[in-house]
TrEMBL record:
One GO MF term: L-methionine-(R)-S-oxide reductase activity
GAF domain boundaries: 61-171
One cellular component term from this protein's GO annotations in UniProt: cytosol
Protein name: GAF domain-like protein
Cited SUPFAM superfamilies: GAF domain-like
Family the entry assigns: Belongs to the free Met sulfoxide reductase family.
Pfam families according to UniProt: GAF_2
Regions crossing the membrane: none
BP terms from Gene Ontology: cellular response to oxidative stress
InterPro entries found in the cross-reference section: FRMsr_CS (IPR000614), GAF (IPR003018), GAF-like_dom_sf (IPR029016), Phosphatase_reg/MetRdx (IPR051330)
PANTHER family reported in the protein's UniProt record: FREE METHIONINE-R-SULFOXIDE REDUCTASE, GAF/PUTATIVE CYTOSKELETAL PROTEIN
Length: 178
């Protein structure tokens, strides 16, 4: 099915996130496959946010629960994304992603060099935001964004991305992840 959406014409970030919600609703209309929906969502966020902020956002994507590890040792595995090749496996509690997953809360990191244990998939990244995907109280993955400058993300991004994460959790079937 071809999604009936148009490119965001938002002129500021708050407006962009309002548009984004509608665009993600558009691309997920009639589609509940998580790979498909996360792939299109990462493309919408990556291209849209780069255009509206003019910041060098260099990676937008998802890590999901890795079902191949024993349940006693929770870990994340790379999912759909936009950007350069990235680390494939991250244990809960490790790096910014693993910390967001273990603590079930957003990590807004203005300077990754000040975050103990930050995993540098790309040495060009200087700031990062990671939002957990929570289904029925359980973390099933994270949404991760990187930027090449410090302070690439702020509380407006946090609020907008938390809405996206919440929407996607309900909009997808998570077969294979949970
Ligand atoms: N920097 C992340 C690793 C994932 S990449 O940024 C795509 C972290 O510290 O968990």
């Amino acid at each position: 099915m071809t999604p009936n959406i148009s490119a965001s014409t938002a002129s500021n970030k708050a407006e962009f996130y309002q548009d984004l919600e509608l665009q993600i609703q558009g691309v997920t209309d009639g589609q509940r496959n998580w790979v498909t929906n996360l792939a299109n969502s990462s493309a919408l966020i990556y291209h849209g946010l780069r255009a509206v902020t003019e910041k060098p956002i260099n990676w937008v994507g998802f890590y999901l629960l890795d079902q191949s590890v024993p349940s006693t040792k929770q870990a994340l595995i790379l999912g759909p994304f936009q950007g350069k090749v990235a680390c494939t496996n991250i244990d809960f509690g490790r790096g910014v992603c693993g910390t967001a997953a273990a603590e079930a809360r957003t990590m807004l990191v203005k300077d990754v060099h000040e975050f103990p244990g930050h995993i540098a998939c790309d040495a060009a990244s200087n700031s990062e935001i990671v939002v957990p995907l929570v289904l029925d109280g359980r973390v099933i993955g994270v949404l991760d964004l990187d930027c090449e400058v410090t302070e690439g993300f702020d509380e407006v991004d946090q609020a907008g991305l938390e809405v996206v994460a919440k929407y996607l959790v309900q909009a997808c079937d998570w077969r294979g992840v949970i």
